[in-house]
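Why predict the complex rather than its parts? Because the way molecules touch one another can change local conformation, and only a joint prediction can capture that. The input here totals 240 residues.
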Amino acid sequence: QVQLQQSGPGLVKPSQTLSLTCAISGDSVSSNSAAWNWIRQSPSRGLEWLGRTYYRSKWYNDYTPSVKSRITIYPDTSKNQFSLQLNSVTPEDTAVYYCARDLPNRGGSENPTFDYWGQGTLVTVSS
Amino acid sequence: DIVMTQSPDSLAVSLGERATINCKSSQSVLYSSNNKNYLAWYQQRPGQPPKLLIYWASARESGVPDRFSGSGSGTDFTLTISSLQAEDVAVYYCLQYYGTPRTFGQGTKVEIK
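Output of the joint prediction:
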């Protein structure tokens, strides 16, 4: 059974950096089939996929264009976890942040999309 | 980006009656090489992360009651709850995983009439 446990501060000041970590159990951040994603949810923006990191002989990242200049998602193989950094935050970045796993290379009859999620972290951007 | 538009935004259905939610994508999410629609449905209850119900537009996730079904192809999709139960009160989202960025619909809130 895969479990994702999120950690990180719930309050960040404007212009500072939002940092969250997602610890993985039951799978490996270096898996050749999984991808490790960050998704956020707010009343104004709904569910918004932010990006992912994944390993396919080397590390890759994909980011959504709206935050691409401010975001970094990176793995920590020694701790089997991955992290989100979002720079220069504004109150518009206030949201519940989730980490999630998917298996995008799956075909056939198996599920390839987000199956395991973290518990969610409410991050408020305020001075 | 592929824009996902759901309708209606909310609906109220009597217990035991059918609930139907629609999702339209701004471009086809049908991949011609494998004839699969890269479309999923999620259920979200308050305070919880989304829960996967349907993938490949019509494949039910393990453990999901068979009153939930998905249909459609290309750009138009439907989630049907055949006989609404009290525990189905939630917000439902469609998701396209055809390309990046992944994009969700705005959500449909289902309530009991």
